[in-house]
Design a protein that fits this description.
about 290 residues; alpha/beta; Rossmann fold; seven-stranded mixed sheet
Length: about 290
Amino acid sequence: MKRFYLLIDCKFFYCFLTNKWIEQFANTDVFLGILIRETRPNKNILQRRMAFHSAYAGHKELTPEMEHELTQLYEDFGEESKAAISCFGIPPLSTSNFDRVRFMGNDLNSQANCQWLQENIQNRDIWLFSRVGQILKKPWLDACNGRLVNMHGAILPYARGTNAIQQIARQKDIKQFSQAAGVTIHYIDSGVDTGNLIRSERISDPFQYKHLWELTAHINQFGCDIYTRTALEILQYPYTYPAGIPFNISQMGKNHRRKEFDLEAAKEAEQAYQQMKLEHQKKSTSSV
């Protein structure tokens, strides 16, 4: 029988995915739990996270006090998280508000985690569905033996790496940006976003949103739906699994790195998005 873990960074933005998976899989025997890339916080932080999500679940407007509290509870809280709240409301559960959670520390490739993999994953029919920002090294690949899947917030192979869709926006190329706007579910291999493709979905009109962060929020939200549905389909059929499709190496885009995307780059990306949006609207109007 196939069983699985969800492996995830402790980001507010990823609360939407954990809520989706808990809703879908919490009462099943196949969901072994959530593995969180974070050193276990103290009890006070965990309780404050739980209380915040419970008190403000569904709220789409942030007061200064609420925003301040979120910056204390989640290190990554920023524009994409604010846009997600504005569009979809605050999720009712934090990333760690589940009865089967293991904190893996900040280094997923640590010796302790390699030992845990050997004891709990190796030689078992256990799948890992990942949404983390750290490259998973050989011990993860060996232990999972082809059962390691990732959700990427852009279309592969055109937009690889971290903040890929935002970094591509900075190029101000409407065709390239439109080609990359979407989500990909793929196997993880030893490269960066180079594993065989399982599924990809593209946004039909990436310029229908108010700003780049709203687009990112919608990509994440429908990506959560697709990821959950893909996992359900994999688990549903005990004797099959997605074969995966290798992509054309000639189409492989640049590997965008985290260090290349600072606050100034984020501003440039938003300005570029607005310029492309205006140009796109002009072309659409003139063609009518």
